[in-house]
Design goal:
single chain
Length: 381
Amino acid sequence: MPGATSLPNESALSRREGEECIYIEGDAFVHAIIRDISVTDESISAEICPRDSSGFRPPGATLQPWKIGTRREGAGVTSDEFHGGPYAPWSIYFGEGLVAAIVPIMAELEGHGWLWRKAALRALLPTPGIVSDGPWRGIQTRLDRCAVCLRETCFVPSLPGHSRPWSPSRKGRLLLVSEAPPESGGFWHVSQHKDSTGEDDLRTQLFKLLGLDAVGSFMASGLFLIQTLKWPLAATRKGAGRSFNHLRSVDQARLTEHAVTAHLRQEILTIAPAGILAMGNAALAACRAISQDPAGLPNGRVEKAREANGRLSIRYGGREIPLDVTLLPVGQNMRLSNRAIIIRQDFDSFLRRHAWDPRKRSWPYSGPAPADTPHTEEAAQ
């Protein structure tokens, strides 16, 4: 067709020849290689060559390649995505970082049902911006039943009901990462009718730092929180404290590796945070393990790493996520004036970096603020 216009990023699509991708069409989803990309005046076509990857195999599926095609008019092409349009309802997601992040998570989900895995995969992809309650409940239910966690001697594998994070509802929040929930339930364990800030030390201190008064206003202001370790820590010896810093280094490494591999990667890819504040050494260790470019983070504990605040980031899922680091803002640290000053400085720096304003309800989105009651409470039991 003479005079046909070029699609945006058409040349970028051609450069994807031979790359790994995630292909979705209807109830089907595969980890694949894309080959034989052809762009003409009227159409775009390619061959999808599925890989035998755990978590992607549909019941009774074969691994034979197949051809896809669509009209140029109506197709959606960006540097990282290729959508067939209204008459070819499939989507392809590219990016070495994104694919490398999703494939091991799907392998971890191999034992779950096909529809459950499909919902989980859609939550991991960069679009849409909404996080459905179902996949998030699935993540939290799965960690509640994690056999490795339940037999871990460093954990007390018991929490009251409604202790897991509510659904984030939308991607792109500012994410605070703490250490581990206490046996009383922790940040998310609140009354269905009113927050009692005295019930949880971390929540009390966070609300003071942020000028907030309820988990509902915390969510409405665009913030979110997850714990690095998913169960309360057991005392390391008689009279010893229950904290990550009291553990032996071999135990710290084991707990962090499992938390990252089995739980945190999926949570962070689903949340797709606009920025992360790692609060304490457990959270910092997890961010190092999650990052696909760990060499970009300084060595050492929080006290050393925080010196680079404003310049730190982790690379994960094909994205560069700004990272800040601070001490864990619990009463034990806030009662020491030198530590309290450091924590306040780090919070101010993190919030300024992202232009956070608690007066912006539902920041950075419009719409009603969530009620001060958990809307995923059934899954948290």
